[in-house]
Amino acid sequence: MDARTPRKSPFQQTPAFPVLVAQSVVTLAVALVLWMVQGLTAGYSGLLGGLVALIPNCYFAYRVYRYSGARSARAIVGEFYSGEAGKLILTAVLFIAVWLVVEPLVVAAVFGGYLAVLATGASALLIVRGFPKH
């Protein structure tokens, strides 16, 4: 391995992994609760809203955390900017796809699922603190 080659990092050992797991659990929980309380349409609407937030976050985390170490700093910064741009574009595309393709849809449930996953990501510092170090 060349001294300038960025080191690859196992994804399960990154700080993003437990956050993405928590966001996945929240996505499924919101969908299940909405389905049980308001019916099938609300359930899949909440699931889609959660996925609209979760999928771009997975993309971003993969891009940013695929390298590690001090030698990788330049690569990490570059991946951060391109990952964030990709995340924003992917979020917009997924929202548009949901609005155009899925019918019927409960709009409040879509946004509820989306916001629940975003809130989980916003509390990432609390989640990552409990993540065991290897």
Q: How much of the residues is beta strand, in percent?
A: under 5%
- The chain-level mean pLDDT equals 87
Order of helices and strands: EHHEHHH
- Please report the distance between the alpha carbons of the first and last residues: 23 Å
What gross morphology would you assign? globular
- Per DSSP, the total helix count is 5
Q: Low-confidence parts, pLDDT < 50 over ≥5 residues?
A: none
Summarize the biggest pleated sheet: 2 strands, antiparallel
Strand order of the largest sheet: 1-2
**How many separate domains?**
1
Global Rg: 17 Å
- Helix- and strand-based class? mainly alpha
User: How many individual β-strands?
Assistant: 2
InterPro entries: ATP_synth_I
Transmembrane segments: 16-37, 43-65, 85-102, 108-128
Protein name: F0F1 ATP synthase subunit I
Subcellular location: Cell membrane
Which structural traits does this protein have?
2 strands; two-stranded antiparallel sheet
What does this protein look like?
Its main location: membrane. It holds the Pfam family ATP-synt_I. This is F0F1 ATP synthase subunit I. Keywords: Cell membrane, Membrane, Transmembrane, Transmembrane helix. The chain is mainly alpha-helical and 134 residues long. It has one domain. 75% of the residues lie in helices and 3% in strands. The model has no long low-confidence stretch (mean pLDDT 87).
Topology record:
Elements: E1 7-8, H1 16-38, H2 40-65, E2 67-68, H3 73-101, H4 107-122, H5 124-129
Antiparallel strand pairs: 1-2
Helix pairs in contact: 1-2, 1-4, 2-3, 2-4
